[in-house]
Amino acid sequence: MKVLKSVAEVRQWRKAHDEVAFVPTMGNLHAGHLSLVAEAKRRCENVIVSIFVNPLQFGEGEDLDSYPRTIEADMEKLESAGVSALFLPTEEILYGEDAPFLVVPPKSLIGELCGSDRPGHFEGVATVVTKFFNIVTPTYACFGKKDYQQLKVIEALVAALNFDIKIIPVDIEREESGLALSSRNGYLSDEERQQATKISEVLKVLRENLLALDPASRPENYHAYENEARTILEREGFVVDYLSIREQKTLQLATQKDQHLVVLVAAKCGKTRLLDNIEINY
Ligand code: AMP
What is the tens place of the pLDDT at every residue in 29-67? Predict the structure, then answer.
């Protein structure tokens, strides 16, 4: 695996290959990241992964400084997974000294959910991903459904800014307990880890209940279902930032006519904010 540190090195590596697949990450790699790499490998032989903890997408008081950095272990995992190149830029290389140019997604996509809970977050994500896309110019780029709103922002970004890149969405990788893998799970105590499994349990039950509904009795809106699921999580000790049933493509609140729904949840387990979601296709 080649370790590339500068923009010029990435461009030179890129020139030698017809098609490349790209997997951007913030490191502390787990099986979720590796499932993105496996999906990338299925598309083409040359896979490039980036590891960069992007300060621009962290808000004040968030975990930028404590975010887990495990570069040696990450490199071993990427080697074993057959990754061709690792892009490891520094903050200085990506942003320099000047105030960054920002890529600002439309409010319809980032005005709610994580966008309103974390002001500036998706501007930071869209900006760094735009830079990576211009540097790497990949044929394919893989993103996890774990960060569902982020995936929608990236899909919209590629369409709006005419990137010639095929975005590959990848399903959520979970522990046997159902807990969605995340670098932030490392912050959980044993007890919290146990509690955290309730999120996916609640999502699964909600999906079963909705799929069991006779089509004629689907509700006008899903507020009652959202409130019930939220209450269960609150009783389990979570502080629920949102639990919302949305249409998969637009992320607007789901209504009776929608066939493809996604239940999105962000909830704090102790101090750790966890994200999860489940798709429902009638
Ligand atoms: P991160 O390092 O957290 O920025 O994540 C990098 C990429 O991995 C993003 O596209 C995430 O959506 C994806 N990802 C993180 N956790 C998972 C998971 N459990 N399953 C699938 N993809 C994931």
Answer: 999 999 999 999 999 999 999 999 999 999 999 999 999
- Partner residues linked to 144 by β-bridges: 170
pLDDT single digits (tens) 79-132: 999 999 999 999 999 999 988 999 999 999 999 999 999 999 999 999 999 999
Candidate of 26, 30, 33 to mutate for ligand 1, largest count of ligand atoms within 8 Å of Cβ: 33
Please, are residues 201 and 178 in contact by the beta-carbon 8 Å criterion?
yes
**Residue 128 · residue 141 · CB < 8 Å:** no
Name every protein residue with a CB atom under 6 angstroms from any ligand 1 atom: 25-26, 32-33, 35-36, 143-144, 146-147, 170, 172-173, 180-183
Q: Angle at which helices 121-136 and 148-160 pack, to 10 degrees?
A: 50
Q: CA angle, corner 78, sides to 77 and 82, nearest 5?
A: 115
